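Q: What would this chain look like folded?
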Amino acid sequence: MMERKQAIVLFGYGKFGRAMYSRLKHDGFGIRVATMLEQNHTDAMDDGVTDVRRFNPKHNDSIRALGIDPGRHLLYCAMDHTANNLFLVLSLRELYHDATIVALSNSEENTRKLRFAGADTVINIYDASVEQMVNALTRPAVREALNTIIYDRNDLKIAEIVIEPASCFDGKRVGEIDFRSKGVVVIAIIDKELGEELIYLSKGVDHKLDAGDTLVVVGRLKELEALKKRCETA
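A: My prediction, written as structure tokens:
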């Protein structure tokens, strides 16, 4: 009897997600498509996708409603914008610690951030063919090796740290602060003036920090605690 292939939850049905769905469906995988945009949902329905659902990546309840089983589903973040994939990886890793997560990236900098955020495999869309993307997603030996390498390092944590009025960071631009030397990676900033909107840090973004802003960072607990103190004092 042929072994049942593992199912996939494919996030996104834009340019990349649509191409991935076509190939994976051809290879016999069961695929549940989750779309953030109404147009992508409509496109999937028009293409005859039978299991397609809308979701909001910023709401955990919306993600839970997709019925993800981390023991059975591979999670593939293939939305066209890397910033959306980054936030989604953070949410998925928080909700499903043991899930296998694959994400698309458009730069080396974003690849590094996606890995810190919890992606098992990150594929640079400018370097990889569709064939390579499928192989990275579906080959058990590759996934097992990546799990071993990454999840042995389970000391990495994600934290949200608020910049206090007395902080030495208040009024500085991100580019003025060498976060890497402090052992942390800043993934995003929640600007107090923009409410819950996330500003994703990528090349070319040099956001001015103000008291009340929140840093979304990844690092070891010791470095995160040290950064928290710096964000509280001058």
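Residues 1-5, 128-135, 137-154 have pLDDT under 50 and may be disordered.
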